[in-house]
Structures are given as C-alpha cells and as structure tokens.
Amino acid sequence: MEAELREIRDHLSQNPPFDKLLDELLDDVVGNIEITYFKADSIILERGQPIHALSYIRSGAVETYHYNGELYNRLEEGDIFGQLGLLRQGKVRFPVKAIEDTLLYQIPKTIFDRLCDNDSFADFVELSGSRLKSTVDESLRENDLMTTRVRKLISRLPLMVEITVSIQEAARLMTENVVSSVLLIEPADEEDSDGVFRGDEGGLWRLKGMVTDEDLRSQVVAAGVKTDRPVGQLSDGRLITIQSDESVNEAMLTMLRNHIQRLPVLHRRRPVGVLHLSDIVRYETNSSLYLASNIFSRNSVRDLSRLIPEIRAAFIRLVDAGSNAKMIGDAMSSIGRSLMRRLIELAEDELGPAPIPYCFMVHGSLARHEQSVITDQDNALVLHDSFDPQHHDEYFKMLAKKVSDGLDACGYEYCKGGIMATNEQWRQPLAQWRRYFDEWIADPDPQRLLHSCIFFDLDAVYGEEYLVENLQDMIATKARYNPRFLGAMARNASNRRPPLGFFRTFVMETDGRQHKVINIKGRGLAPITDVIRVHALAVGSKAQNSAERLRDIEHANILPAGQVDKLQYALEFIALVRMRHQAFELRNDQAIDNAIEPENIDTAERHNLKEAFQVVNNAQNFLPYRYPYSA
Amino acid sequence: MFKKRSQQSVIDEWQRYQAQQAKACRNPILQRFYQMPLTDPEVPLSEVSFLALDFETTGLDPRYNEIVSFGLVPFTLRSIRPSDGYYQVVKPKCNLSEESIAFHRITHSQVATAPPLEKVLDELLERLSDCIVVVHYQHIERPFLDMACHKFWGEHCLFPLIDTMAIEARWERRGWKHQLKEALGLQPVSIRLDNSRQRYGLPTYSAHHAKVDAMATAELFLAQVARHYSPTTAIGQLWE
Description:
The structure holds two protein chains of two kinds. By secondary structure, chain A is α+β, with helices and mostly antiparallel strands. Chain A contains 24 helices and 24 strands. In chain A, the strands form seven sheets. A four-stranded antiparallel β-sheet of chain A has the order 1-8-3-6. A four-stranded antiparallel β-sheet of chain A has the order 2-7-4-5, with no helix packed on it. In chain A, strands 9-10-12-11 form a four-stranded mixed β-sheet. Chain A starts with a helix and ends in a 5-residue tail after the last helix. Chain B is 46% helix and 12% strand. In chain B, strands 3-2-1-4-5 form a five-stranded mixed β-sheet. At the A-B interface, helix 1, strand 1 and strand 8 of A face strand 2, strand 3, helix 4 and helix 10 of B.
C-alpha cells in the first residue's frame, strides 16, 4: 500500500466501525476512497437528495438536523454520517452542514454494501443502540486471547536498519528510540520472494532478522565483538514472525514453542511492529478475587483497613483485564459486603450477641451489586418487632456506630445524607419500616420520593434476611398498583438529563452549551438507574441489580421492542466508562471522582458514550407516556 | 512601485508559448505534448481535470540536483481520488547526499533498483498532458522538469500550472493587516504546505513523500477554491 493511502488507512483504522475490520477489507475501503472538502457553513447534504457514499470526517466538524430543523447531532473527526440514508432508499435523511472547514473521506455505496455483510459493521451503522451493543459484546470477549488480534497489542512501528549499519549505530538507534529490538533489512530486487516487502518509498526490502538487547549483551559485549562490525552478522537469518491478523493466543503459542520473547508482526509481508511477551502478559492479567476470602481472616478494623490498597489494585486489574461493568460491579460489591459482614462480626464479638433478631441492610449501589471502587455508606437496621427501645436500642446504636466507623476507616465515607443505621430514624423495627414505605408510596412528596429512590434499592447483608425480604416483597406488591406513585417516580427519574454527548473536548448540552467536565454518575449512571427502577417497580420486580431488573422488565413486555437491550448496553457502557475513569485516577494517584473530561476518553469510547446518553434521554422521554403524572 | 503584470498578459503569453512550442519541438514526445490544445482559459474550474504533482529532489538547484521521486494525484473540484494516483522513485546520476536522505528517507539501495528518469519521463509527460497541473511552490517542479527535458532532449518543457503557494501568498500576504505586520517587522504568515493547510482546517500528514505531498496539495487547492474562488472561476485566472 502506498504512503498516502496509509495516511488514510491509519486514521480510519483507529475509529469505529473501521477499527474492527479485517485488514483486507480495510484496504479495500481505503483503495476506493474519494476526498472532498467543504468550507465552514456550507451545506454538505440536503434532505431528500440521493446519496451515494458514506462520509467519514477526516478533519473539521458538521451538524446534522431533524426534519424540523432542530439540532440532531454534532459530529467531529472520526465520525461517520450518511449511513441511514444509504440503508434506506439511498436518500439523505438528516441534512448535514459543515460548521468548520471539513475534509471528508467518501466511501462509495458499493463498498459500503460490502462492509454491511460484516456483522459488527452492520450493527454499528444500523439504528443507534446497536453500535453500543457491538462494543459491549466486544468487551465481553475482549479478554479472550483467542479472538483478540495481534495488531491490537501493537503500539508502535518497528525500528528497522539495513544490515550494513554498524552494531554501534544500531544500538544507538535502539537507545534513541527506546526499543529493545531492531529489525534488520536489506535491499531486494525481486518482489515475489520470501520476506520481501515494499517500503514506504516504494523500494523493495527483505526482512533479514532481528537483533535484541540480549543479542547485544551475549553476542557483542560478552563475546568482545567490535562494535564497528555490521549489525547483520549478529543474525543468523532465521526469523519467526506472525501476521497482524492472527490471534494473541497464536502469538503466545508461537513464542512458547520457539522459546522466544519477541515476535515481529507483519501486515502481509510488511513489518508493522514487534510484539513482546510482556505485552501479552500485561494484557492478560487476571483479576484476583481471593480478596473476599482474605477479608474474613482479619481480626480488627485496623487489619481490615490495611486491605484498601489491595482492594484498589484488584479494581484496577479488573478494569485493565477488560472485564465488563457488571462483573466489576459484582466483584467490588461482594468485597464491600464481605467487609461489612466482617465488621459486624467483629462488633458482635465485642458487644455480645444481639438481644433480638435484626438485619443489617444496605442501599444504593451496594444493594444493586453495582459498586465501583469508592462509595459512601448507605445502610440501615431492620429490627424484630419485639424491639423495645428502652432495653435494646443502646445495643443497636453501638453496633451501628462500630460498623459505620469501621466502614469509614476502610474507605467508605459516612453518608452525607445521613442514610446510616447510626441515625435513629433508620434503626427501626420492621413494622415501622413498613409504615414508612406505606406512606412513601401512598403519598409521595419530594422528600419521600427521595427516600424511595434510595431505600427502594435494598438488600440484606447480615442477620435475619427475612426481615429485609419482607420489605422487598412489600415494595414489589404495593408500588405497581399505585399509578400516582409511579408517575411521581417517573417524573423524578426525568429530572437529571444526560448531555447530548461530547463534542471535541467539551460536554455538549442539549441546548448547545458546552462544559469542561461531566459528572458521569449524576448525569449518566443515576438517570439510567432511576429509569430502570421505575420500570422495575411497575412490573413488581424484586430484583435489585439493574441488569436483573431489566430482565424482569423484558419478561413483562412493557417496553417497545429492543428498548431493554438498548438500556442494557447503555447502562453497561456508562458504568464502564466511570470505572475506567476511576481506575485511571487510582493508577495516577489522583483523588477519585466522577468528573469525566472528554479529552481523556478515546474516540471510540466517546462515540459510544454519546450514544448511550441518547438512549437514556430517549428512555426518559418515554416515561411520562408510560407513567403519567398526576399531582 | 512595482506593478504586477495583469493576469490577461500571463494568459496571452502562455498561448503564444504553446503555439510556438508546438511548431518548434522536434522531440516526438514533446511534439505530442504541445500539439494537445492548451486548455481554454475561460473554462470554469468545475469542468477541469486537475493533477497534483510533487517532486522530491536531491536539493534545490535544478542545475546540480536531481529528481528522486515523483507523485501524482488526479482530482476534480468535486473529489480527489488518491488511489488513482501514481508514484515513482527514480535513480539520479549523482550520489545522494546524507542530508537529502534524512529529509525524504529515500536511501541508496532504494534508488539503486529504480529506473533512471529518462526511462519514465515520457510516461510522466503523458500523464501530465491532458490535465491542469497543480503544485505547491512552482520553483521546484517547473524548473526540474524543464531541466530534465533539456538535458535529455535539448528542448524546453514549460506549461501553465497552478501554484497553491502563489495562491496562498496572494490571499495571505496582502491587505492592510499584512502591510501593518510588514511595517512592524513581524514575520509574515508561513505559506509552506503544512502551515497553509492548517489555516483551512486540513489535517497534518507526514511530509516529504511525493505522493502524500501531492494529495496534500490537491486538498489545499480544493480548500482555497472553496474559500476564495468559486466553481465558475475561469481557470486562466489561476495560471502561473
């Protein structure tokens, strides 16, 4: 492939959906591209005009509009448009205008059609939601070394020198380029012979071998070879390579089989990188969940609090290993619960057995099994109805305090809203809890709605679980038959709107304003969790986990076809972005927060997040129709 | 004050030159080249077939330096088709200097296997013959090509072309802002290929590969027409 086409290819191959294409198909796309240019403010596509090509934004930015002229989306470098028109009768659906000087790569319809035979590409270009789906599905498989292609692990071009270069010069270039290996090449004259490839400038080269740091040590320094000798003499001409299309698994097997640690990676016959065994190991790192068991062997709050670094390291490993948000949420939640159980056990050891049956329950992300690396504590105590404040409360007050202080010592800050068992209001017998819930559902005022949102995600962590189950059953049976309550919850769930998406390094609001950061929890995760909770309440689901709630919602068949899937993928993706963000902060010793800066998210992720926000927004728009509000 | 000759006189001159060359040239290749009618200067840009051309050379002086590679990319105002382009490394007579190798990364062994320029010159002219050539900085492509024809065939080869750098100079280095800058002794804006491209929101490509530069020049020209001219502008207005 010639240099100018590689300029195009390199850019395309970094952005979805092209990043998932096989090399050969990608070459096909690149070989058929036409370049067009539009200055700022010019119309690129008019509604209804015939469309013959998919447009890829190489530089610049465009806006697309609804029929009514309202802003539909703002697209930037790496985005595509025109796919809907191409899929439907070949007419432009959403008009497009350049808002900056814009350079487009046009992919003709014939090629586009061929690309659509490819499942992941077709998923991507079809209606929104499916693009997310393919990414989420992909990340489920991501960690699978059988399916990951070698090229994904390649981060830089290989260093190449002619065999006639001196050993010292080769070593100098390796040092300068900070690499531990260099590929040796010599001019070739016959194209179709082994190991021959065409270089950037069109010349023919033969790949002759590789020299590594170890070679320089063993064959040069240890052997006392003069460094002005040609570097070619260090290689015996045998070289094991791998194609960029092969799986990482295959690469690993090749290395093991041949007792080598580095593999030059070829695209066809051209070297495109060198894979090191450590690249694979880094990629494959396993998450360690032995942590939870470790927790139960700790005998003091202080011992437990020493586990914080390990918990955080486990979180980072999970994220790096490409686990999905549900897996990470499950893992972190079970760590959180184990910690809490152990704290209660330790408190009981100290205070003696409880005078009456009770159950410690948790709310929020811990109840939903969706905890990330940090969270504050949301907990409460359900006591047996034989509770007598005069005789029993002192015990439970102490118990709550010990647990709460212990959690704080372990990195789970006190709840600012006071949702803790230390607060008398939330340390009550079952009957009182039932009265609370009854009131909240029957007569929802803003304060009660807030409580409903927090307390209606609830799960037992320690003690007599039937006490909490009783409450779960009650919510499941009462809420669904109370349209007024559902209407109020629905309205509440639409209060926090996700932004339109990202544009460049800004967060785009629906009214066109732009911000530097987005609170991914407040503007993404909480809104989607809220939406799911409303539906879950409406179908009488007793599930606490959002994914499980979605399954119940699916069974109840109350949403338009495909909607549950979309919510599922959007939830997964938003949660994952938040976790990756927090893992990044942890790794860099920064304070952990939920403030996502668009510039720190890669292009593919931004596309997906943008789409996830749109899913949430659509789901919110649907709520008032499904659950009308009556004041 | 120095007054620039009018564009009409440029057009007239080219038409005269073309007629004269068509008669004078003895070399069959050049004869064929000049017997193709000169593009009508009144033709609107939208109807012209363009060809972006770029040379990489061993240095800046056509008397002592030589062409080492050339890249061609055909285009129209509507679109550029990079894969229909053409790229060729050629073997110069002189040795490659270390600096020029570092510059465009064409090495000894690469040129060793390449054909000499005279073997591919006729093919190059063939490709140029029915298009309007667009270059960035005419003072490389024009004299080097002319010098090559003169060296091999003893005859000159010049033709009207479009220089995106000249266009850039025309728009960027005029007006009161520029004069003010000049009066204050400030650096004028750079009209080099990459700097010019940045002003039009065009991406940065890796420079000094003849075909990448040709593609980059074609893109720049589309951007210049979009900003400063129109599809109906007569081609003759942009001739150099």
